[in-house]
Amino acid sequence: MTAQADNAPGDNRARGSFYLRYMVEPYLYLSPAVIVIALVMLVPLVIGISYAFQAVNLLRPFQTGWVGFENFQALWSDRKFWLALTNTFWWTLGSITFQFFLGLGLALLLNTRFHGKRLVQALVFLPWAVPTFLSALTWAWLFNPTIGPLPHWLAALGILSEPFNILGDPNLAMWGPITANVWFGIPFFAITLLAALQSIPGELYEAAEIDGASAWQMFTKITLPFLAPMIAITVMLRTIWIANFADLIFVMTGGGPANSTQILSTYIFTTAFRKLDFGYASAIAVALLGLLLIYAAVLLVLRRKLVKI
Amino acid sequence: MARIELNNIAKSYGSVEVLRDVNLTIEDGEFIVLVGPSGCGKSTLLRMIAGLEPITGGEFQVDGRRMNEVPPRDRDMAMVFQSYALYPHMDVARNMGFSLEIRKAQKEERSRKIADAARTLGLSSLTERLPRALSGGQRQRVAMGRAIVRDPSAFLFDEPLSNLDAALRVEMRLEIARLHQRLNATMIYVTHDQVEALTLADRIVVLNAGDIQQVGTPLDLYERPSNKFVAQFIGSPTMNILGIDQAENGVKLKDGTLLKVGSEQERRRAHELGVRPEHLDVVAEDAAHMKGVAELVEHLGSDTNIHANVPGVGPVLVRQHGHYPLRAGEAVNIAVDLEKSHLFGVEGQRL
Amino acid sequence: MNALRQTSPWAVAGKYLALALYVAFALFPLYWLAKIAVTPDKLIFSEGTALVPSRFTFENFQTVLLQTDFVAYFRNSLIVSLGTAAITTMIAAAAGYAFSRFDFRGKRLIIALMLITQMFPLLMIIAPIYKIVATLGLLNSLTSLIIVYTAFNIPFATFLMQSFFDGIPKDLEEAGMIDGCTRFEALRKIVLPLTLPGLGATLGFIFTAAWSELLFALMLINSNDAMTFPVGLLTFVSKFSVDWGQMMAAGVLALVPSCLFFIFIQRYLVQGLTTGAVKG
């Protein structure tokens, strides 16, 4: 390092390779991540949005070009789109409700003391590690009366009139993927809520107990308020995630029978994958993205309002 | 061994200035303590000397050589961190020898130096332990050992004792003082504890809000604080600061008592009077400058602290040597040692 | 929670019952999968709903391993998942380190970009990716899958790694730098050894994520040679949907790597996910 005589004392600009490195270093560490994400996700995202305004159908390679809002006009009058939208709503609502309450219950149980806790914890979290396509297949098989026990049990309980496959019944089919999704999703809520529960200081409960609070009061006055921020953020993220989650339905029912389990994301996938109509698929995707953004915005505004009170 | 010079050193994060115009020369072998309240910039200054923070203004020299841009590993300084920063995955010996390992020192030399340092610090039986198996005091010793092994040109200490309990702190303080005597190396020590500063330092640097308030020997700072901040920061219990009015041949306390202090020139600018609790005395009624009531009396054995309230003047703390038989609520007559009181101007400067 | 409060035996029994139900619900589907896989063909229908088959066989596993392409699928999936996990973890460790240790211009922007990639439907880019990959002539190649999966997993892995780095005091590296290391040496000799559990957990997460991905693999791969396990299994199911025993045996085999990794990372789940729980 050379002593820089021309660098008058008090000069505010420190030079030299030491500082240059200091400034540049973080970007060096980050650049691979940023480059990969930009090239593989952000660029395709922009292209994908632009597809929504084009005719891009690999089966009709000569009819390409900008079409303005034509895809969206078609979407507006597409009965399947509206059906898929309704189905998306029920699929998401059903899944998130059961996942959340069962997950919360599990987290509360795991936050108490009992024998064999480590083993139980490992076992109940296991479904989360099962690959989704396999969960889907397993549950599809369980609902199949030739091979699975569920239809027989449901019939024996009087829920079904006879042991048939509910995945083939347009009125009941949605319950199949929802069940699989709940099974698969409980551990996620349980893990995040358990982590939040464990961060509540124990003294709070001791103080409440000295003040004479009942178990229920402790739950509503201490546990819930402490969990609330975590609940808000996980429910929001999970809702978006589930609404986008096509694998289970695609494997279990393929959207059938008679589109009764077709949700927007499976509709996007089948439109792209089977019909190779990328323009239309992208239009559906943009519509879904728009709806989810509105949902997130509403939730964030609501949360801010509620927190202020 | 090194002579360290800081010329107009400044530090800012964006537009936020945390240190301004710091000028300081540290002689070879000197023990300098940087002291000040939290947030005054003392740790930042130390980290700039170590090379862990970029210097944004001014020049930093060691033995006449500009060091601003030299990376920490080439500055030949050892540092003891507040958290000790022992490498959790290495045993005590490897922790102490890590710098030699990095510099690819001979194995025999390395183990000899480690053994020497371990012996000096009483760690010989612990060299194979991991840091997590050590007590707080032992960790502190390992951190010091890591610095000693290197035989650096300067030692930097960043509040090294603040994680220890009171008894251990006194013990380690002595150990550091002994270490300085033995090695006679340049040491820069950051603390917020004035007792550490007064006991260890050759010279103390008092910092506040990014400015050096005063540099001097411990006695200098105690007897001739350059301003109200230093006066109140050094010395325990804190100096009494009393409001005054100017008078003919002295200053008047707010209750009208005349005190004959200072020259006429000083008195003209005087705004407040500072007097340390140990320079107040409980006396007979006719010799008293102030008459008050004891509100709280603390019996410390060696001393007695009397928190008195003087009508018109306000709360005054008096320190009496030994046990003084006084109870709360009793009247107390106080005399001021005029020789040892200080006058401060409107801006807090000592006159 | 407390020793003094009397808990009624009914409450205790209820708690254990609830736990038992959760465990049963979690394990039953997997148990059933394994049960059918070891049931001899002849008994599958006659003992349809029996909880335990009267005879066991490993014939299905043999058939799957020896007479089908599953070994190839398995190998492809292993290449893709290991490749993705290794590359992603390296890239994410570097990025997570930068987020954890540096303050620099544009940090918030980059974090925001990464969060955005976690919010929009991945299916949105399935069409453009297909077209790009097709244009590059990389359809049916495992490389394209590795690149795509790497990109998908970097944001989550970065946040995970950042939380692991955040757990390591900055002082340690600074001590290392004063002891004579360059920053990179300090990273290699001090920080990385301490992050090993975190690196392991991240590897595990990414491996399982890549192992389970179906839709992009389905889109980008259609030649039998390059099929990953999920695609192969699905093709197998739609072609030979009566070989129940074999399909389930293949399913059990698909479960093995995920479960191994799961056992490995189980310990870090609650700790590690606290800060990193964005996407599961």
Descriptive account of the structure:
- The complex is a heterotrimer of chains A (309), B (351) and C (280).
- Chain A is built from twelve helices and two strands.
- Chain A is mainly alpha-helical.
- Chain A folds into two domains: 50 residues, no CATH class; 232 residues, MetI-like fold, CATH 1.10.3720.10.
- A two-stranded antiparallel ribbon of chain A has the order 1-2.
- The longest helix of chain A has 35 residues.
- Chain B has 351 residues and is of the alpha+beta class.
- Chain B has nine helices and 20 strands.
- In chain B, helix 2 crosses helix 3, helix 2 packs parallel to helix 4 and helix 3 packs across helix 4.
- The two termini of chain B are 38 Å apart.
- The mean pLDDT of chain B is 91.
- In chain C, helix 4 runs antiparallel to helix 9 and helix 9 packs antiparallel against helix 12.
- Chain C is built from 13 helices and no strands.
- Chain C has two domains: 49 residues, no CATH class; 208 residues, MetI-like (MetI-like fold), CATH 1.10.3720.10.
- Chains A and B meet through helix 1 of A and strand 1, strand 4 and strand 5 of B.
Outline the secondary-structure elements.
The complex is a heterotrimer of chains A (309), B (351) and C (280).
Chain A: H1 17-51, E1 54-55, E2 65-66, H2 70-76, H3 79-110, H4 117-125, H5 132-142, H6 150-156, H7 175-198, H8 202-210, H9 215-243, H10 247-252, H11 264-273, H12 278-308
Antiparallel strand pairs in A: 1-2
Chain B: E1 4-13, E2 16-26, E3 31-35, H1 42-50, E4 57-62, E5 65-66, E6 77-80, H2 92-102, H3 107-121, H4 136-150, E7 154-158, H5 166-183, E8 186-191, H6 194-200, E9 203-208, E10 211-216, H7 218-223, H8 228-233, E11 240-247, E12 250-253, E13 258-259, H9 264-269, E14 272-275, E15 280-282, E16 290-299, E17 303-310, E18 314-321, E19 331-336, E20 342-344
Parallel strand pairs in B: 3-8, 3-9, 6-7, 7-8
Antiparallel strand pairs in B: 1-2, 1-4, 4-5, 9-10, 11-12, 11-14, 12-13, 14-20, 15-19, 16-17, 16-19, 17-18
Helix pairs in contact in B: 2-3, 2-4, 3-4
Chain C: H1 9-38, H2 41-46, H3 59-67, H4 70-101, H5 107-119, H6 126-135, H7 142-166, H8 170-178, H9 183-212, H10 215-220, H11 229-239, H12 244-265, H13 268-276
Helix pairs in contact in C: 1-12, 3-12, 4-7, 4-9, 4-11, 7-9, 7-13, 8-9, 9-12, 11-12
